[in-house]
Amino acid sequence: MLKTKAALLYGLNEDWKVEEVEVGDPVAGEVMVKLAASGMCHSDEHVRTGDIPIPSWPFIGGHEGAGTVIKVGAGVTSLKEGDHVVLAFIPACGRCPSCSSGHQNICDLGAYLLGGTAIADGTHRIRNAAGDGVTPMCLLGTFSPYVTIHEASAVKIEDDIPLDKAALVGCGVTTGWGSSVYAAEVQAGEDVVVIGIGGVGANAVQGAKAAGARRIIAIDPVEFKREQAMLLGATHTFASMAEAAQPVNELTWGKMADKAVICVGRIEGEHIAEAMALIGKGGTTVVTGMGGIEDIDVKLSLFELTLLQKRVQGAIFGGGNPRFDIPKLLGLYRDGQLKLDELITKTYKLEDINQGYADMLEGKNIRGLIVYGEDDY
């Protein structure tokens, strides 16, 4: 066991509490990782508010991290001590029907994502000072300098990639980029609308640009985020879907956009109809943003859906494959074809996590990043 600290939640709508925890040594199939950084994603806020249910409290957040392997459990052959890894919030076993058919983002191990215990043996790998088992976000819990995780959740990367930047590719970057490139299947010359420019939407803009989109229309009520979207490849920005409707019509000579990607922090049922109205015949709307687990009401024109042959497509991890796309995107970063440094608006200490989430909710950050230093280990 290793004593360290972590940011925990003890109930709905409570503040994060940074306190001492014990992280267990890796059992068969697991590794322990010393993290360099962790992104602060909106999905952890969804747990705090109850949009994402968990089986038990306390809960350790964080599912976007990168670091160095420091211990290896029995039977692990894909990793060794000293390896640099990105933690993928979707584990990929490589053997189930989904993985075998090229859909690692819906690996069967995803059934354990919010189960509260480790894949390897069904026990808790993290305990608080009282000895209570702690539920980790997406089997990871990167709001701690150390994690013990299954090797299916770790992707080896090249040693020259800065670990603090690499952390972002474990969730937000790949989810956004893939939502445009894979889920929406953006083609060269198409017009794309991205709704919500946060840690995911900013990268949907980058993905659309990489795919060769002609026009990239970014929509967000926060002026700062619209400005950042332009730096990342957007060609036009608007504060709302209602404000964008007529300009999109004019820009496309009445055809409307080919694709729309919804990346808002919390999706509501009416967003679907609004986004569908921005795309034309044969267009696709990708739903990447998350809503509450009990939300089942959606506004949608069935007339348009059928007669204009439009499509609504859900996406987790952007439809990407962790073991392929994480190294691929980091390669693009190395070659200057993907921006990562520019996504980090502000860095925080773990103890400042509540301020970091307040900044996110106030629209001040594209991505806030917790950076671990020597005093954290």
Short description:
The chain is an alpha/beta fold.
SSE blueprint:
Blueprint: E1 2-9, E2 17-23, E3 30-40, H1 42-49, E4 59-60, E5 65-72, E6 84-87, H2 97-100, E7 126-128, E8 135-136, E9 146-150, E10 154-157, H3 163-166, H4 172-183, E11 191-195, H5 201-210, E12 215-219, H6 223-232, E13 236-238, H7 241-251, E14 257-262, H8 269-276, E15 279-287, H9 302-307, E16 311-314, H10 322-334, E17 344-348, H11 353-361, E18 367-371
Parallel strand pairs: 4-8, 11-12, 11-14, 12-13, 14-15, 15-16, 17-18
Antiparallel strand pairs: 1-2, 1-4, 2-7, 3-5, 3-9, 3-18, 5-6, 6-10
Helix pairs in contact: 4-5, 5-6
Descriptive overview:
The chain is α/β, with parallel strands linked by helices. The chain has two domains: 206 residues, Quinone Oxidoreductase, Chain A, domain 1 (Alpha-Beta Complex), CATH 3.90.180.10; 140 residues, Rossmann fold. The chain contains eleven helices and 18 strands. Strands 3, 5, 6, 9, 10, 17 and 18 form a seven-stranded mixed sheet that branches. It has a six-stranded parallel sheet with strand order 13-12-11-14-15-16, with helices on both faces. Strand 12, helix 6 and strand 13 form a beta-alpha-beta unit. It is globular and about 65 Å long. The two termini are 14 Å apart. The model has no long low-confidence stretch (mean pLDDT 97).
